[in-house]
Amino acid sequence: MTAAGPRFGVWANVYGSWAALRHPEDPLDASWERNQRLVLLAEQLGFDSTLVAQHEVNPFGGHLDQLEAWTSSAALAALTERIEIITAIKPLLYHPVVLAKQALQIEDISHGRFAINLVNAWYKPEIEPAGIAFPEHDERYAYGAEWLTIVRGLLAGEEVTFHGRYFDVDGYSLRPRDRFRERPTIYVGGESDPAKDLAADQADVWFLNGQPPHEIDRLLAEVGSRGRDGAVRTPLRIGLAAFVIARETDEEAEEALAQAWRYAAQDEPELTHLYSSADPKAVMFQTFQKYPAIGTNGGTAAGLVGSYGRVAERIRAFHAQGVELFMLQFQPFEAEMARFAEHVIPRVRRAAVPA
Measuring CA to CA, how many Å separate 297 from each of 36, 98, 108, 194, 338? Predict the structure, then answer.
């Protein structure tokens, strides 16, 4: 087990829902007002992090609302006091110098609670119609590796000179530099071979999609075999996405899961659009086909469905494998998030205290 106990985070509701689009108790709402309330409640309930996913266009369909990640994160940084704010970034959408400056500003506003999560673009309708090139999968990671090399150096206050295939930067530096630590934390998502290379070389934390424990063991072994030969010398930490359905008993949780599948069945048109618009080489979609789930990014495939005690036990087991941060989704989000904070987090914490 890692030295500290597990941390818990929540996904900001940037799509308006992280599961069924037609849930009667969780109407679609991707507004800033809803997300502000959600994150402030999460901080009040004791959650450690929030992840603000980045899309310019809602991947379930362009007719649906979508929260803008970076402006919202700046506002959250000013409104919150303790929670870590992790904002996703697709390198194709921002020049590294511009993004690094924005990240340093949010780091300053938050007093050292900001992080970036580099993700490879997979949703073509928000890239190609804007006239932005959408390279092949592995080339996007090559681009992202150069991009992140520049961003990481600028975040650390370095004067950066970089001449690569995609970028030419000459003696660039940003001020003020980080007043609170060496630089903001860098998360990397993705499970393809190029993503593993990038995580091993440059990430502080590697985000994995929800999936069974034996798959987590495999992925950790594969990235561990790469070593840490890049610029980051500290051990690679692990985050895991998961959708939680926790109840008093296993039977109640299974009933709730069955109902969730019935609600999800109504979303077939939107899911068809999403899958038809995604890059088929994106490994996460191959994983989703292998392990169908409620929620995005693996969701219930992580197995956090059951009684409060069983869910806590599974979290402890993942933590023993090396997972440090659990980035969680719920539906209805606010009510189930509060249930998790009341009934599951205390059980995990109690078990982590030595007798």
Answer: 22, 28, 30, 18, 21
Q: Following DSSP, what letter does each residue of 23-51 receive, concatenated? A: -TTS-----HHHHHHHHHHHHHHT--EEE
* Rg value, the chain, Cα: 19
**Alpha-carbon distance 241 to 301, whole Å?**
10
- Tell me, what DSSP letter sits at residue 173? -
Cα-based distances in Å from 153 to 100, 110, 173, 178, 275? 9, 20, 9, 12, 36
In degrees and rounded to multiples of 5, residue 237 shows phi and psi of -95, 165
Residue 2 is predicted with a pLDDT of 45
Contact 102, 87 (CB under 8 A): no
Domain boundaries, the chain: 7-352
Q: What is the pLDDT of residues 3-28, one digit of tens each?
A: 479 999 999 999 999 999 999 999 99
**Confidence tier at 355 by pLDDT (50, 70, 90):** very low
Q: Give the span between the Cα atoms of 94 and 111, in whole angstroms.
A: 24
Domain range 7-352, CATH class: alpha beta
Q: What number of H helices and E strands is found in the chain? A: 12, 12
Q: How large is the average pLDDT for residues 256-281?
A: 93
| pLDDT number for residue 205 | 97
Tokens 């987590």, located at residue: 216
Pairwise CA distance, residues 101 & 109, whole Å = 12
Determine the Cα–Cα distance for residues 80 and 113; give it in Å rounded to an integer.
Answer: 10
- Asked if residues 98 and 92 have their Cβ atoms less than 8 Å apart, the reply is no
Cβ-Cβ contacts under 8 Å for 18 (sequence gap 6 or more): 11, 243, 295, 296, 299, 329, 330, 331, 333
Q: Are 116 and 85 in contact (CB under 8 A)?
A: no
Residue with tokens 């001020």: 175
Q: pTM surpassing 0.85?
A: yes
Average pLDDT, the chain: 94
Angle between helix 137-155 and helix 193-202 axes, rounded to 10 deg: 10
Residue-wise pLDDT for 304-338, tens only, equals 999 999 999 999 999 999 999 999 999 999 999 99
